[in-house]
Predict the 3D structure of the following.
Amino acid sequence: MDEAAVLPRQRPAPAVQGGKRRPKREREGAAWVFLSPWVLGAAVLTLLPMAVSLYLSFTDYDLFDPPSWVGLRNYTQMFTEDPRLLRSVLNTLLYVLVAVPLQLALALAVAVALKSMKRGKGFYRSAFYAPSLLGASMSIALVWRALFNDGGTVDNVLGSLGLHTGGWVNRPGWALLSVALLTVWQFGAPMVIFLAGLQQIPKELYEAASVDGAGRWRQFVSITLPMLSPVLFFNLVLQTIQAFQVFTPAFAVSGGRGGPADSTLFYTLYLYDRGFTASHMGYASAMAWVLLIAIAIVTAVLFRTSRSWVFYANEEGR
């Protein structure tokens, strides 16, 4: 018997450039070279401004004179001596509770309708997504204000139906709703995410439910919503965080003052007013950190409660 056939085969040595393997430190150095633009950008544009803002939140700073250390005075003043701050918090919470559910409900309804379409799906998907690209601009916000102003298009249409509102942006009870509707109109981004999630649901589940006699509504409640719950949770967290930071629509609708009667005085708008209009940059920095902590708490609560209603197919016992 041939001796070569008995001996075990030896694996060929891995090919290395130049006959030598590159040292580990050299490979790590190359990785850091490619990562350096991101690391530099994160440090200079994010971490450094955050550190400066944290320092300024403990100072009295008016943008012109050097900051003077005041300790926790800005924070205590926020919670004990500033009634407009409480009004801005309540307006922001009301806006989040109204705008986010309506936006997600409309996005899901349109996504379900697009999924069942046979022709023209790409066109309608692009058309519905376009407001998400344009809605954050000041120009669109100004057009929105003109639509809901006294004598605007919405006022004229409602007036022809016998409903004389006098302009939504001029009435304290309706101004916040007009801003919320602008956010609802920008449902394109969550709609696209919902549509992607709907396309991942197996058709066999709907076929089996149909055989068992389940109607469309029962299929939606028992199949679509549970299978889509991770996507719904993702959109809920994302849109909630964005809603807490709303600024441009409120600034445009109220002219930067939060009117009428502070009905559109959102937290970020009041932060801008304290920092750049009143030149209380230390106080505004403290407000910014309170907002960051509040968003972190709300996000943590959403993640905590998601255990009871978000369904993951690869988890056991769910």
